[in-house]
Protein 1
Amino acid sequence: MSPSYAQPTTPAETAASSPQIPDAAYRALEDIVGAANVSRDAAVLDSYAFQWLAELVRPDQSHYMPRPAAVVLPGSTEEVQAVVRLANKYGLKVKPHGTGWYHWSGPIKDEDATLQLDMRRMDRILEIDEQNLYAVVEPYVIAARLQADLLPLGLNLNIPGVGCSSSIVASACAYHGAGPDTYFMGGNAENVLGMEWVTPEGEIVRTGSLGSGDGWFCSEGPGPSVRGICRGTLGSRGGLGVYTRCAVKLAPHLGQTEWNVRGTAPAYRLPVHERMRVYTIAVPDWDAWAEIYYRIYDNEIGYIFHRQFNLAGADLAAAFWLMYNDASKTLSDVPGMVADPEIQKLTEELRISFQIILQGRSEDDIELQDKILDAILEEVGGWKVERFCEQDMAEFTNVYLQRLGHKHINFVWAGGYIGSWMQFGTPDWVKGYVPVAKAGLERDAAGGKLVQCGGDAMMGSGSGIPLGGATGLEQFVSYDPDDHDSTVAGIKHMEDAVTDAASIKYPPGKEFLYLQIGWTDEAVWNALAHARQPQVFRYQRMIKDAFDPNDVGDRMYPTLPLEYEAGS
Amino acid sequence: MALTDYRPDAMRCTRCSYCKWIPYDLVKSARFAEGCPSIKAGKFHAYSAGGKLVTALSLMDGRSEVTDQVVDIAFKCQLCGNCDVACKLCRYDMEPILALRELRAHLVGLDRVPESYRPLIERTRAALAGKGPKTPADRNAWAEGLGLVDPAAEPVDVVFYAGCKYSMEESLRETVRTQVQLLQLAGLKVGLFENGCCGGLADKMGYRDEAAEAGARMLKQWAEAGVKTVVTPCADCRQVFTRVYPRLEGAWEGQILHTVECVEQLVRDERLELTTPVPLTVTYHDPCNLGRQGEPYQSWEGEEKKIYGQAVVYDPPRPRHNGAHGVYDAPRDVLAAIPGVELVEMERSREAAWCCGAGGACREAFPEYSAATAAERVEEAAYTGAQALVTACSRCELNFSEAVAADTASGGPSAGMAVHDVLELVAVSAGLMPAPAGVTAVTAAVTPPATADGKEAS
């Protein structure tokens, strides 16, 4: 019997012509990790090729990134090392991922025969050092698991904006790691301490104090100070070797040590501890928004600080979140709720808002922070959004922002979202792009091919660096990945956002990183050559030449060829 | 429905991996955070619900073919529904568990099934044709002497449907007889038909025609006899009656109750008195088909439409089944009504419960995988310090009993732990049966299991 399927959307011949792994190499992989931990079954490979955002950069809006030649599940650093050495021997690429989310976590180019390393067998929390405030983890430890073991100890960790579903090692060693608690705890890029790194040639490098046998406490010595090679701001995103362990800094948590979450799915609730406060704050305009951010920074109040709820869009956020908190309701109920005069009033009240959780060392301390916040609100003309500060919404906000276990509400409207803008700087600088970002989304959604949720669907960390100073807002643009025209509108929005940013002399935002994944090498190099600091990519080329002479890593570790350098 | 009807679900999957874990908000320790037995065993992403969706999409796109590994991916899964709960934390446009079931039915249509399925479905077909090793009369041997009446001959308060396991497993005989006696003690007139399998196993395996045939037969029997309420001790049967039968022809408007729901009502109405103390610390396991897949269910037919440009909704609005409203409280209320019983919860409970391993035909088709899944659960139960693991499903009870026995033989974490049906304890408290062995004895101290990190759990 032949199966019959309707409407294939992705050319089968593209997959069929994917580079294959030589049989000898495959057998060697089986010897290294065991036959049960390697696969080249086409369907298994496609489950790795299929990635969110692929449809925005691949030919014909295919949902598949290039298919890996094999998927390997290493179980130890030594196995990773052996796999990487094998890749060098056979001319294969190596692409590791933690939990494997984002189009760049898979192979980038169709012509590459790539070994996809899925790190899920390396999932141990190796150490929690309560005295020295760090934890040592393997790549498949997600933030939710570590946090669950930390809270009873009165400790916590920064959970990046990607949410608690993602790998700590990935954000700490190889990508960016800011989130709602970065304001208090620092981002994972700063928080990373010792790292264990299997270089693209298969050497094992233990960085900083770890390399001198002194433990995990420092990333920059005593011992090999190669942190600047391993990662800069953005990290190598799987393009320069494999990180097999790292230590991250922990922070004190003075709130609940018992995770007594209650309530009905999907909107769980966490009772607010007596030394904590959970508020949704709003201000009348964007000048006041910038001002209140500065004052929060200056007064050093706050534990978790984030603009979260606007991701649903300023026109719909009030109705959406109230709908979400009523388990009997669905998205079909939103239009009726939006029409409710009380919710319309709330929508206006909530339009320029953010969330803040305060944490006190004592009752006096939390009361003092409360007074400071009230004074700031009075000075800038802001207010607490009463409905969202009531017990039900406060408890929901509490669990949402402490754990970040609902991050994929990003996709709630239509199944696809693009983060555009997200340029990072002072609040005054960020507020400079808000009207352009807002108008851009309104313009691009006007035709009905993107979700029309209000021009401001912007969210982001209160501060992406500890104790404040710099923030950023990501525009949440929702499209339907099952709708070709909507997907194309999403692509156009990304291109428009780059142009919009240039029109006000801002650098391109997050969408630019997304778009580049689908470009040719030459187009990427041209862009890098015209970046504000192209010399960075020259240095990175030198690093790549030294550490990856066989070109095992892909271009997610970006470099600039000599011929593209200015004057060459 | 057809597999292609789930193309939008696959296209809109974001590979977020929520389906691999229990709802993140409910994670209380690193050790017990996983939610999906299928990917725990299979490891590759394709074994997760999202991965299965992509596997289906890849087949539909002609990019891959049905291989033995694809068969393994599709069928080595208990259909426990954790993925459905976790996915729907953030999504209103996805139906993972329905898509997974559709993939199975699709592969059954291609005759690409695990080899271990073939004798199972042959037995089911034989039974449906009246040629099985057990006739309907044989299946009722367990009820001998209980005074159950033929509902076709005289009116009854409830019809009792025991299900295959309770009908045929000797080790469960006392449990099922006691359940009927409890109903009778409360004054209910209980009826029993001669009938066969409900079709649940066939349905889980993806053999829908066979399940439908069984269902049609059952519905006809109930309708002709004017049955108003069916009570079953089997969570699987209840799930089939409430989720599969409503889609079949031969509408029947009666009420389906699990015995524990019925008993909870009887206790609440003071028709059943529980007076004998049962001094036992227990932990309760929520059977998947009574819990997250046991919530009130409405069939839906309609179409997708868009609001606000591209936001996906359904016309008419699609009922939301996200596991929030399963039968969680009734068994706990019953336990609370038994003097002496102390309930301590496992970390993964209610909609976040880890599966017992038996479901989705895995106990029959993949015994090692099923046993490994059960071993994970009894370890979690041991971690609570409870003396007994109690549940309300025959398949769970069998799997747990075997897992504990294996631990007892090997000195594993659950060694010595008792396994009971909730209603066994009710029967003891109601004076219907003596306390099971070990109830009053002090169970040997349980050593907390090591965490994933190799440390002893605190």
Protein 2
Amino acid sequence: MGSVLELKGIRKAFLGTVVLDGIDFDLNAGEVHALMGENGAGKSTLIKTMTGVYEPDAGSIHLSGTEIRPHMPSHAVKLGISTVYQEVNLVPNLTVMENLLLGREPRGFGGIKWAEMRRRAEVAIGRLGMSIDLRAPLGSLSIAQQQLVAIARALDTEAKVLILDEPTSSLDASEVESLFSLIRQLKADGLGIIFVTHFLEQVYAISDRITVLRNGSKVGTWDIASLSRLDLVTQMIGRDAATLDRPEMVAASSGSGIPVLAAKGLGRRGSVSGVDLELQPGETLGLAGLLGSGRTETVQLLFGIHPFDAGSLSVDGKTVSRMKPRLAIRKGIGYCSEDRKREGLFPELSVRENMLVLMQVQRGWHRRIPLAKQRTLAKELVDRLKVEPRDPEKPIQFLSGGNQQKALLARWLAVDPRVLLLDEPTRGIDVGAKFEIMSLVETLRQAGRSFVFVSSELPEVVRSCTRVLVMRDRHAVRTLESGEIAESTIVKEIASS
Amino acid sequence: MNRAALREKLPIAITASVLLLLCLGAGLKFENFLSMRVFANLLADNAFLGVVAVGLTFVILTGGIDLSVGSMVGLSSIMAAKLVGTAHLHPILALSIPLVVGAVIGLSHGVLIARFGLPPFLVTLAGLFFCRGISLWISRESIQIDHPWFHDLTSWSLSLPGKGALTAPAIGFLIVLAVGIWLARQSRFGRTVYAIGGNSASARLMGLPVQTTLISAYALSGFCAALGGALFTLYTSSGNAISGTGLELDAIAAVVIGGTLLTGGYGSVFGTFLGILILGVVQTAITFQGTLSSWWTRILIGVLLLCFMLVQKAIESAARRYQSH
Amino acid sequence: MKRLPAWSWALAVLVAVLLFNAFLTPGFFNFVVRDGRVFGSLIDVLNRAAPVALLSLGMTLVIATGGVDLSVGAIMAISGAVAAGLISRPAGTPFEGGKSAPALAIPAALAAAMGCGLFNGFLVAVLELQPIVATLLLMVAGRGIAQLLANGQIVTFTEPAFAVVARGATLGLPNPIWILAGVGILIGIVTRLTALGLFVEATGSNPVAARFVGIDARIVKLAVYALSGTCAGIAGLIATADIQAADANNAGLYLELDAILAVSVGGTALAGGRFSLVGSLIGALLMQTLTTTILTRGVSPEFTLVLKAAVVVIVCFLQSPSFRESIQGRMKWRAA
């Protein structure tokens, strides 16, 4: 079968930053083509150029041999490129039937013809071999079923290409299986399917070919049989796993025996499960794993953002039955979110206020830190972390990402927590800032503070962690002790099945 | 029936049972309460409010709000009276011109909200000030309407069995209600309104005409408010610039009591009809009672509103709990 | 370069309107001292702006947390009805009986107002209802309650000790101005000399992040709604003392909208976050100056409403992100 979709030399830059650099990609009819890559690889931008959200700066898109220029999502749909997103893009308050046909309802003199609509919906659903109550409101369905309805809607427009953008990230095993049997059937019908996911097992279960992107460039395209898991992970992370070892050893400090933070079988329904970890004073515990492996979810359970419903959690050997952010802070645990914008910044407030708000909360509302003292403290923190510009009165929204990150870190340093949960603290910031943050962490660790460190950059994990917990598919797989830590071992654990 | 379908039907079921209980209670306490005449009067007395609330329902279903409806009633009423009284237009024309004005003002609300992303609350607040200002500018005094055709229309009514009679405003209300129900259930416009209220980002990604639909919803609300004003003019045979003061609250209350969520997406025009009936029954019962003063209406409406909000909240959080598992 | 405060352009417009009056409205800046009191258009503006300005102070903090309080007009009516009822104790009202001194009536009215505010706060913070919906409740029922308290009458009274709240003067200036100044300074101190202001801003700026640094948004919200209710109570007392009567139907009618307007004109974003009490006061003054100007220039007063409508739309445009972006984009493009 020939190629149904072909991308040639796609290039896209935002504000001078090249996000996609001359990507070639082709999709055959009747194939499942997995698109893989870590954060910032350019997957979602590439998909958005195919679905008309972005227009590429250079390059061309060909559908069944003719060049197309989709300029908005509905246009791409009309051309035959349908997309099902991770977040179900349907409306929860209307019925399954209406969601399938919204905007193209059959109409007659008396308005919408419901009988005709029902018939068409039955056909659309029946084609996928599903049995779903057409009159149930979409919101009453499980996420998996909603996803299937989204696919049915996408197919009702006679799609030639179906893009599945992380459709499985919130599904459980049996739901994934029902989705996969559908994908196999669509494939047999001759549809070209692009499948984006973070789950290696799923890639190997369903795909025919794999294309890996890294930092906006294409690394390569392989037949599934010719690329081992280890090779795939290596290609995604961008290092040859065999040749890289730990450059320097970091000795684990001898703890008092009682861990500051410990979890046993910690989990939450629909999130992670079976997380065992122990954090001693003066230790940096790395959480390694691919995107979507459950690292962030684990850290959020530890800080009490979502309550855990399985396993146990203890601080200083004392069991905590229900963790909440306020309780965590009181116990000396801090959390720097990976999502700065949504969970960290107060955009309109000044750098000074952003840095000192936590300290102020701990002092209580009535004991305001005097302005002069705030200024001195802010100045000290700004200097210590080299936040640019050095003006603490500037609203934080006008700082660069790296400097925002430093200011958020400063927020915690100001109160000197015993445990700091760092989720991707070095994401999207420049090399200098990365180095500064990591050496600061190391200094504090040597002073007896503990860290849980989540990072997608293995060299960082290897260089700075005393132990590493490897996660895969939302489970903790194994804890690597200090002597075992090396990029090669981590990669092997991530890729093993 | 599954739980989500229950979620859909429960609010309106509660509204209906409250209405039934109120009617039963009032019927037991007062003789002649459960009669066609009382019902017909109730319709006539609340026709203008009902028409306004039907239009408002669409806006609220999209997740928006229209605060301008009350002063739009005033504008429409004073404008019609002025056109008959001073410009000597035929009442049909005089009552129709404000409808166009109402639709245009509603349309401009919609454009500011949908195209420029301004908050509905403030935009329609500006509309409230604007309409009231213009009406007072047209005339500060109320204007009586003297026109033979007008008298014929106001005194005309359709006899019902059991001594009841439907007046022209009541019939107008019933027609608007029927059209509203049809629009909401049977038209693409209506279904898109629900989709926007459910999740406007998804609606956009599904390729639905979100902007056009939003603008139409506000235009419809403006039109209905002006029509409500026209019916009010018929009802009182006069135009007054300050009529409809605070009416937006009653209309919002009727919509919410009718089971429509202020966050949009859930509810129905028929529910709004039930909401209007509940308000009407409370009012009528208090009049029948005689010793209870009129302000109890407002307080009771408030209590009912609170109850419905709490019920909606409970349903919502139950649904969320169900969803997360 | 130091950034200009968000209210600078509101101040600029205020100054422009005042200048306009200085040249074109004879006697606008005149002051006359009679019986130890200062009279003049400017004093009049301040005096008349006091109730809305008081409402806008409370409203500022509510809006800063990302909420809104629609019930302040109705709370004014309740506060007035309680005070007038306790002072004159007319037959048919719940207060029937011997008269009370203002020393009892005023605290009772304020307590009732604060109770209303706490009720709003409870609905918003604990039951997590949308602020518009939650405060709509008292906006609807509040006037009913006020009428109930006044038994549907306009409760009139003659009590010089109470009338002095609105009609008296201290050091030559009308008392409402002093009350406004006092309340303003008090709220300023409480928000800016403690950390409450920061907590309010953090809650409104990013509720998720506020939770992650351990701010208890419930208590913050409860407090601001209670404060807003109390401010409305004070405004209600002034309005009642001014006309020596409590009019449950008309006291504070639509003033909630004026207050919201004053807050937005003063540079506090309706989405919450940074707030400016000074800005809100300037906003309230600006609105009143415009009204007074229209009145003194003999333009028909209906136009204040149309003018307000225009101001609302302009403020919306200035605050809307899409509008700002397009302006900034154009400026950048021009600079490039």
